[in-house]
Each structure stands twice: as C-alpha cells, then as structure tokens.
Automatic annotation (TrEMBL):
This is Crotonobetainyl-CoA:carnitine CoA-transferase CaiB-like acyl-CoA transferase. The keyword Transferase applies. Keywords: Transferase. Transmembrane segments: none annotated. Gene3D superfamilies: Crotonobetainyl-coa:carnitine coa-transferase, domain 1 (3.40.50.10540), formyl-coa transferase, domain 3 (3.30.1540.10).
Length: 402
C-alpha cells in the first residue's frame, strides 16, 4: 500500500534530536529519507547514550530512537567532489532538512540559495536554537537551555527547591513537530503553485508557542507564577490539581473535578470548608497536604478505581517500564520493534498517528554510518569507479552490517 508521502525524497543533513525526529516522522509516512552524515563519525547522537550503556554493546539508544526508516550516506561535506554529487542529488529531491548552527552549511555551499539554484522547487527546512539572526545567534541551542530561557523550567518543581527540567527533550521534540508542520504546509503550497521555499524553525520560538496559555495569563492578568511548595501540578492552578501519594508507595495525578466530589469520594468531609476557588488557590499547599493525608490511606489501584467511579479526572504515575506495560499502551500497539544488524531486536515507540488509507509503518532499522552510501549513489547514476574514488580519498565511509 502506498503511504501518504510516497515519492517524496528528503536530503537530511540533520543530527541529534530536532531534525532527525522530524525526518523520522516523515519517513514513517513513506518519504524517502537520505540521511547525509559526516564521514567517519556520523550523527553526533551515535556517540551519546543513557546509563553509560549501549544497545547490543555498541549502539546508542538516542540514535536508534530517531532514525528508523532512513538510509545513510556518510560524506565529507568539505570536499568539492562531494558538493557536486549532492547538488546532482538535489535536482531530484523535494526537501532538504538541516539543524546545524546558523550559517555553518551555507559556508560549505549547502545553503538554501545553493539548492534553489539547481532546483527552484526545493523546500529547505532549517532548524536552530534561536533563529537565523539576533543577539543569541551564536549561542548553543540545546534543549535544557531553551527550557530555562523560555520559562518552562522556572514553572516546574516545588517552590522550596531549584527549578526542575522536564524529563525529556521537550524543546527539541516541539521543534521537530514544527519542522513537520512547516514542511507539509510547504509541500501543499508547492502542489498549488510549483514554488519551493525556505522554512525556518527554532527551539525558542517553538517553546514559547507551547507556553502560550502561561504567557497570556502572566502578560494579561498582572501576576507572576510562583511555584507551590507542594505537589500541586502547575504554578497557576489551585488545589487539588497535582500529584498525590498512596499507601503502597505509588503516586496518582488528580486533575479537574469538583472539590466536593473529591472529598466525598475520599470520605473526608472535614475538607468541606476549603471548597471555594479563592481558598483552594490561596491555601493550595495546605489543601494539598490534607488531601495527600487522605490519599495515603489507599493503595494506588484501589484509589484510582474509587476516583474513576466518581468521574474524577485521575491517572496513575508510571515510570517508563510500567507505562510500556500499561493496558491502554498495549492495546494501542505503541511498543513496537525492529531488527538491527548490530543491536539486535530494538524496542521502539510506534508511529502515534493512525491513517485509514495510508498507515505509517516501521520498515527499516536505524542505519549504520554510511550503510547505504554505495546503493544511494548508484541510484543517482554515480559510477562504481567514482564511488571507489570517493572511498579511497576518505570522502565517503561505509560501515558494513554483520
């Protein structure tokens, strides 16, 4: 079955998380993604990992997570011979994606104008930390730095402790989604007009956009968020919105529900005097403490059953392993796997979007460095002798599968 983006070719110069996640999402939908890596070392994420361990003894979980359904070619971008080959490839490509610091690729001859000169229909998506210009253009644009700068970090954690970064690369992943949003919009525009264009995405702008309700609140209500000293889940919210302990050492989240429904469900009528909006906000830490004393009288699953029966918005707090085994996660088939030539069976998250006519799918493992270089160049008409010359000069490397 054809996929939604079958026939779309992407030259992917991106590395780390933002760009690779974006191109993986497009690859899941059928786009042909040619990952152009640095000769020798490849994507920087290949050398980074969690827990100081490697999947299968050699492969990075960080890289494996964001690079399925792609083919890799590893080239020396400083080589003029390589530049010529890539420009030939660009004549048949639809999209270029890159997330180097502003100006880096352009200096090597791989900027938007360079690609547009050989293919006016090209869509060139550039990702950065802070945009293509401005006072921060030379700064490193890393996820946690953006969380701090944009205001997310200051909103997270308890008020009597330091701010807490999100436990995932939220700025990078939001940036990836914005890349996809821009690319798909540009593809639609090109279908109507025949014109390509340049897309600029940056982590700071994306993070700001996803903090829209917080900015609207602060800038229009004349108040600043102050983190609570309890498990309240947002610095602008009143009790009981937050995280609560249970008798068996677990935790649950409680979101929106009438406070009366909650204290009646907990058999805690002594909480009734707190039941008005102003009090639930001004005394939220004290209310959280009193509610927490009640939730600790129940085991987690018993408490959840009781609250769900009362239509209280609640959920368990799972760690990654427990979430992967959650009945709803299992039902949705969100834990998938692929076979990797060195890492073996790799468990991954399945595509999150369902489509009735063109369903996304996992069809390739994350590639080895330059694994598909020879076959890619042959498809673009490069001779065996030229390929051998590239390898001999060190302008292309190919890591062989076992």
């Amino acid at each position: 079955m054809d996929k939604a983006l079958s026939g779309v070719t992407i030259l992917d110069f991106s590395h780390l998380l933002q760009g690779p996640f974006a191109t993986q999402l497009l690859a899941d939908m059928g786009a042909e993604v040619i990952k152009i890596e640095r000769a020798g070392s490849g994507d920087m994420f290949r050398g980074m990992t969690f827990f100081a361990k490697w999947v299968g003894g050699s492969e990075s979980p960080n890289f494996l997570a964001w690079n399925r359904n792609k083919r890799s070619i590893a080239l020396n971008l400083k080589s003029r011979r390589v530049h010529g080959l890539i420009m030939e490839m660009a004549k048949k490509a639809d999209i270029v994606v890159q997330n180097f610091r502003p100006g880096v690729l352009a200096k090597l001859g791989y900027g938007y104008e360079d690609f547009r000169a050989v293919n006016p229909r090209i869509i060139y998506c550039s990702g950065s930390g802070y945009g293509e210009d401005g006072p921060y253009v030379e700064r490193p644009g890393q996820d946690m730095l953006i969380q701090g700068l944009a205001g997310l970090l200051a909103n997270t954690g308890r008020g009597d402790m330091p701010p807490v970064p999100a436990g995932s690369g939220m700025a990078d992943q939001i940036g990836a989604m914005n890349m996809v949003y821009g690319i798909l919009s540009a593809l639609y525009y090109r279908e109507k007009t025949g014109k390509g264009q340049k897309i600029e995405v940056n982590l700071l702008a994306g993070m700001l956009a996803h903090l829209a309700q917080e900015y609207v609140g602060v800038l229009n209500l004349g108040e600043d968020f102050v983190r609570p000293n309890s498990g309240i889940g947002h610095p602008g919210m009143q009790a009981p919105f937050g995280v609560y302990e249970t008798k068996d050492g677990g935790y649950v989240t409680i979101a929106m529900s009438p406070f009366r429904t909650l204290y009646e469900t907990l058999d805690a009528p002594h909480l009734a005097p707190y039941d008005d909006l102003a009090t639930l906000f001004s005394q939220r830490d004290a209310v959280w403490q009193k509610v927490n004393e009640e939730t600790k009288k129940f085991d987690r699953d018993d408490l959840l059953e009781r609250m769900l029966d009362a239509d209280i918005w609640c959920a368990p707090v799972n760690d990654i392993r427990r979430a992967a085994e959650d009945p709803q996660v299992t039902h949705m088939g969100m834990i998938a796997s692929y076979e990797h030539p060195k890492a073996g069976t790799v468990k991954v998250i399945a595509p999150a979007v369902r489509m009735s006519e063109t369903p996304p799918a996992i069809e390739r493992p994350a590639p080895l460095v330059g694994e598909h270089g020879r076959e890619i160049l042959k498809e673009f008409g490069v001779s065996d002798d030229e390929i051998a010359a590239l390898e001999a000069a060190g302008d292309m490397t190919v890591e062989e599968a076992r």
